[in-house]
Each structure stands twice: as structure tokens, then as C-alpha cells.
UniProtKB/TrEMBL annotation:
PROSITE patterns: NLPC_P60, PROKAR_LIPOPROTEIN. GO terms for biological process: proteolysis. This is NlpC/P60 domain-containing protein. GO terms for molecular function: cysteine-type peptidase activity. It comes from Bifidobacterium felsineum. It comes from the Bacteria. Belongs to the peptidase C40 family. PANTHER family: MUREIN DD-ENDOPEPTIDASE MEPH-RELATED.
Length: 250
């Protein structure tokens, strides 16, 4: 009796185990089926790709078409160091030549001025040797005026320097030289070497308006003028038509 109970228990256990294994695959299959269903719930996506190779080869270009050559490019041209040195040397030579020409011209001008002064002194020497009655003071003034020919100064400065050579210290406007110490106005129209010539209304030839110029008479119808044609000292005529006053110093 006891044995039958044990056997019944074993059979019951086996039957329960069989039922358990029978239901397990069904549950597993159901789980797999649910997963697949959820994956298929996403919408499908399709991407269309263009044929880039076909598009690139679809352009037809003429065989003689120009796309720009190297020669057509505006590229700054750089010079070699040798070319730069050659240009610098050429420029230096040109500047040296110009400087030499300017120095030569200046030297020539100075030589001409010196020659003019020498000629003037020669004329003065001839004048002194001619037995003129000019005083020693007048001769000193004339000698000083001749030495200034070719220089740059106005008319009043010239006459002032000529007077200083004979010991007279005086300077003023052209009309003021009528009052030179020791001098007097000549009224008979005569001229002697060393006389001071005062001019009026020279129309700007050697100054402005009114009494605008003064010079030193040296004889032979010539006078030495300062400020001649701008600023130079020169030997020229007496401008008789503009001469207003003659002042003589004994």
C-alpha cells in the first residue's frame, strides 16, 4: 500500500515536469514574435543617389577653348640683385654727371665774374693813368665799386660800400644820399668820376616808384649800378633820361 503511494507521487511529479516543458517554447515564441513586430513598426527609408560621374562628363568643351595661359597673368616682375645693382650704379653715375655739370657751370660763372672784375680794374687803371682830376677819395670809391661788379646787392648797399672806402659812413634810401656828409648837389649838369647819381621814376627798372635808384659815376658816360636786372652789380650807362640829382664829394 505504501509502495503504491510512492509510485503515484513520482508519476505526478513527472507529469508536472512534462507540462512545464510543453508550455515554455510557446512562451518563448510569443516573446520573439512581439520583438519582431515592434521592429517593423519603424517606417521604411529609401535614399536616391545622383550619378555624379554622368553629370561631370555631360559638359562639352571645344578643343581650342582658352582657359587662361601663364602669359596672360598679371604677375609682378621681380628683378635680380644684379639688375638692381646695375640700375643703382647707373643712377649714381647720372647723379655724379649732373653734379659735375652744375659745378662746372658754377665755376664758369665765377670765372666770368672774375674776368669781368679784372676787366673793370683794367679800365679803372686806364682811367687813373689818363690824368683825371678825380680826388683820391673818389678814386677809392670807384675802385671799391669796380671790385663789387658781379656780386649780388642792391643799389644803396653798393654806394654805401663805395663811400666807406673813402672813410664816409652813410646809408639810407636813394633820395637820402643827397645828404651825404661833405657832399653837395651839382647844378651845372656836369659829371665827374666819383659823383653819386640819384634817379627818380625808373619804372621799376632798378627799384620802385619815386626816388628809386642810386649809382656811382665812374667816367666815360658809365656808372656802376647795384641791383641791376634784379640784384647784380654791373657797369652800364647812366640812364640820363631818369637821372634827377647829382651829388659830388670834393
Amino acid at each position: 500500500m505504501k509502495t503504491n503511494s510512492v509510485i503515484s507521487s513520482v508519476v505526478a511529479v513527472c507529469a508536472a515536469a512534462a507540462c512545464l516543458f510543453a508550455f515554455a517554447p510557446a512562451a518563448s515564441a510569443a516573446s520573439v514574435q512581439e520583438t519582431i513586430t515592434s521592429t517593423k513598426s519603424f517606417p521604411a527609408y529609401t535614399q536616391v543617389r545622383k550619378n555624379f560621374a554622368a553629370e561631370a562628363t555631360s559638359t562639352d568643351v571645344a578643343d581650342d577653348a582658352s582657359w587662361g595661359d601663364v602669359e596672360s597673368l598679371n604677375v609682378p616682375q621681380t628683378k635680380s640683385q644684379a639688375e638692381k645693382d646695375a640700375e643703382a650704379q647707373k643712377k649714381a653715375q647720372e647723379e655724379a654727371a649732373q653734379k659735375a655739370a652744375a659745378e662746372q657751370a658754377q665755376s664758369q660763372s665765377q670765372s666770368d665774374a672774375a674776368a669781368s672784375r679784372n676787366n673793370s680794374r683794367s679800365a679803372l687803371s686806364s682811367y687813373s693813368d689818363s690824368g683825371s682830376s678825380a680826388s683820391a677819395g673818389a678814386a677809392a670809391s670807384i675802385d671799391r665799386a669796380y671790385s663789387l661788379i658781379g656780386g649780388s646787392m642792391d643799389c644803396t648797399a653798393l654806394v654805401t660800400k663805395a663811400l666807406a672806402a673813402r672813410g664816409i659812413n652813410f646809408h639810407g634810401w636813394p633820395e637820402d644820399y643827397v645828404n651825404v656828409p661833405g657832399g653837395y648837389v651839382v647844378t651845372d649838369g656836369s659829371l665827374q668820376p666819383g659823383d653819386i647819381l640819384i634817379y627818380k621814376y625808373t619804372n621799376g627798372a632798378n627799384g620802385g616808384l619815386h626816388y628809386d635808384h642810386v649809382a656811382l659815376y665812374v667816367g666815360g658816360g658809365k656808372a656802376i649800378h647795384g641791383g641791376w636786372n634784379g640784384s647784380n652789380v654791373a657797369l652800364a650807362g647812366i640812364l640820363a633820361s631818369k637821372l634827377t640829382t647829382v651829388v659830388r664829394i670834393p
